[in-house]
Amino acid sequence: MDVPIDVQSIRDAVARRELSASDVCRATLDRIAALDPPLNAFRTVARDQALARAAELDGRRDGANLPLLGVPIALKDNMCTRGVPTTASSRILEHYIPPYNATVVARLEAAGAVIVGKTNCDEFAMGSSTENSAYGPTRNPWAPDRTPGGSSGGSAAAVAAGMVPVALGSDTGGSIRQPAALCGVVGFKPSYGRVSRYGLLAFASSLDQIGPFGSSVKDVALVLNVIAGHDAADSTSSQVAVPDFCAAVEGDGDLRGVRIGVPRHLFGDGVDAEVMAAYDAAIEVSRNRGAEIVEVRLDHSPEAIPVYYVIATAEASANLARYDGVRYGYRAKDATTLGEMYDRTRGQGFGREVKRRIILGTYVLSAGYYDAYYRKAQQVRTLIRNDYDRAFASADVIAMPTSPTAAFKLGERTEDPVQMYLSDVFTVGANLAGLPGISVPCGFTSARLPIGLQFTGRAMEDATLLRVADAYERATSWSKEKPRVASELSR
Amino acid sequence: MSNTFSRGDVERVARLARLELTGDEKDLFARQLAGILAYAEQIQRVPTEGVEPTSHAGDAAALREDTVVPSLPREESLAAAPDADPSAGLFKVPRVLA
Q1: Which among A19, A20, A179, A248 has the fewest CB atoms less than 10 Å away?
Q2: Residues B60/B68, Cβ–Cβ less than 8 Å
Q3: Which tens digits make up the pLDDT trace of A200-233?
Q4: Within an 8 Å CB–CB cutoff, is residue A193 touching chain B?
Q5: What is the pTM of this model?
Q6: What range does the domain containing B29 cover?
């Protein structure tokens, strides 16, 4: 059966009863069964729950009004799903089944979406390659010897391979945008506070934000429309009214009056030449659509990575204190006292990168080091925000490569944490400043690896970002390119 | 600031974090954290006198009315525990003192 690949067409076909939600769900599950074994994008396929949910939607009379009726979606495995395992790709939550839904899950279900499964990620979203999963790495659909990026690598790979039209990820330092770039899909990190974090397993609470992956800017806008908005259960979720994000992508692609900032002083030796060439070409495309290109400076950008790793690990060391073997998750078997039980449960349950970050975060918060590292990092964070404020006085959005390189090989960066951290050099700034960011495909390397273009915008101006990204997408065809694994099956 | 990070430093911090590490992990982390901290040193060069720290990027967290709302039933809260006594409504842990 032919199931359309974009969100609007699926929804409309189900609403008009040309297809049933059950048909779409079965076709999606078949595709996952056929494509996922070599890729390992999924941690859990919620087959029975998804089919039951689709059947329920098919039985409803009022379904035609639902904005995501029958649309299959996958969620990163760090979002709580009632009755469906949620592990954050960690051993410490191997058998955890949440008793409640994250707010994004409740909103997706109310909108008629069908959650088909949970996707692999770096353990507790800590990583840039999905190699830190306790359940094996995910492979890049464009090149199986390479990583999909991370930490939301499973969600990016699932969309890239055409297993699902859309998926959710979470982005703390680039974990939606970087894998989107490396897998050749669209990935959107909304403004901080735009989407409720209730039910997202916390990594770094002042930086974490949930957002969608899709094959087009319009698909991510359709999902964002459903998940955005204030939630009483998340005190950091914004009260700012939610616009219709789809209206932002229904223009004619005209960028006249839009100023795109280019921080060229940041593009030094670390950026791959093919990535740089694709970026320059993308800027020309935007200029040809009428955008004004202006030079901007983000002077504290070189310090963004160290600031990020101090702040994110400090917050993580506090957030992950809850995994102590008492209320949920793994408990070490051989402990005779409570203290021993805590130490061994955490020592055995967490993987290497998580332990490394807990140690670093505990250290920078400990007596004698707090001011030198944590407080200092928070002050430089202020300077980074000020840089963006200044840049946004002369530009409406800022364009950068999403990642300095295309997809790297499995194992290539696992021995050197600092090298891995540098994958996020262009993405962490948006998290530190609370800004929205989007990655859209903008070309390929000579080895046919996808390259991503990132736009960053002012806080709560998510719609502007979608408009600019949509205009770029309309002027090019990069988003339509699919990896061979995706097309072979449909033939 | 010193860029060295000894095995003893790792042990001290691991105790604070209630995290049991193997001997190999202690050596590995001492080496890697020295590298990461050396890299993080560059923020020390940034002048920040009089700069307010940013703890949060969003609006100030909004307070809500302190009203009673339904929460998870006790049985469901206990269901995911490694060891619990549902009839007594208790999580169970090993004894506190050796």
Answers
A1: A20
A2: no
A3: 999 999 999 999 999 999 999 999 999 999 999 9
A4: yes
A5: 0.97
A6: 7-45
